[in-house]
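_Backbone structure tokens_
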Amino acid sequence: MAASVGQTVAQQAGESTSWPAPQEGDFVVHDFRFQSGETVPEVRLHYTTLGKPAKDASGRTTNAVLVLHGTGGTGRGLLQPIFAGVLFGPGQLLDATRYFIILPDNIGHGKSSKPSDGMRAHFPQYDYADMIALQHELVEKGLGVNHLRLVMGTSMGCMHSWMWGETYPDAMDALMPLACLPVQIAGRNRLWRKMIIDGIRQDPDWKNGDYSSQPRAALQISADFLLIAGSAPLHMQEDLPTRDAADKFLEASMKRITAGLDANDFLYAVSASRNYDPSPRLDAIKVPVMFINSADDFINPPEIGVAEREIKKVKRGSFVLLPASEQTHGHGTHTHAAVWQQYLKQLLEESRR
């Protein structure tokens, strides 16, 4: 998912930025063929970058870092103090005066091509394999980057990180998946996603995707699950200690979340995970992997033991489970870089050439 849904823009107000000015652009992929067999004449991929690429004497890119956002998010959405302010500033681990930071908007998200641009539910039914293929097109052809120092991803981007390691095993030096599991989406994780998909499609106002105004019930169920899936019980209990405080927070959160949602866009984004399953090919990953989840993550609960089991298949893989604490923020811990940056430092050192 995107950064913690319980966190408001107001919480970030007044905090100065320390990273270099971001640059934005668009790259168009022509006649892209989706896994479904569908094609479109053009796919627009929007991106944000910080810093400048560097190459060695052989022409190999040496400093590019690909950072992949979560479901419903955008690349630029990661430019907030709790993430970029910890990582991209002067002297920090991914100092953008030394590294070339690439923050794409995935297809279906942000300013990239998406159903709400006009095709609505006639937009191609993209999946995660399509998403990483388009990321690769952007990186290699759009930005001229032929090698990545690091691929890092949060939530959906975490899942994409595993797929990058399997699909393009020689394309990077290291992988850092944050807040996901490297297996088929099943159990409760599949249930809540299917509830959203069915809830949108069953809203009479959805009209098979051809609505003229946003279907209220579809947005309601989407926002309900976004709020719960990204929640952190410890913080919610402390921040909302009374019934009235909780009700007031819910009302404000629903207004904020639904204001930025399009039913078709969100339906597609959630449905894109339908055939994700990197588990059979984890042994194909060649580079060091630092895989991190938090114990208070609703979407990836630690008690099921999947992460510990699957990381054994990764030749150079390490898994860290962050204990639930005042410092963790449920699923949204993936964006609170101060909590896990020590492990990024370890990964960068381990994968240094």
About this structure: The CA atoms of residues 42 and 136 lie 16 Å apart. DSSP finds ten helices and eight strands in the chain. Strands lie at 23-33, 39-50, 64-68, 100-104, 150-154, 175-178, 289-294, 317-322.
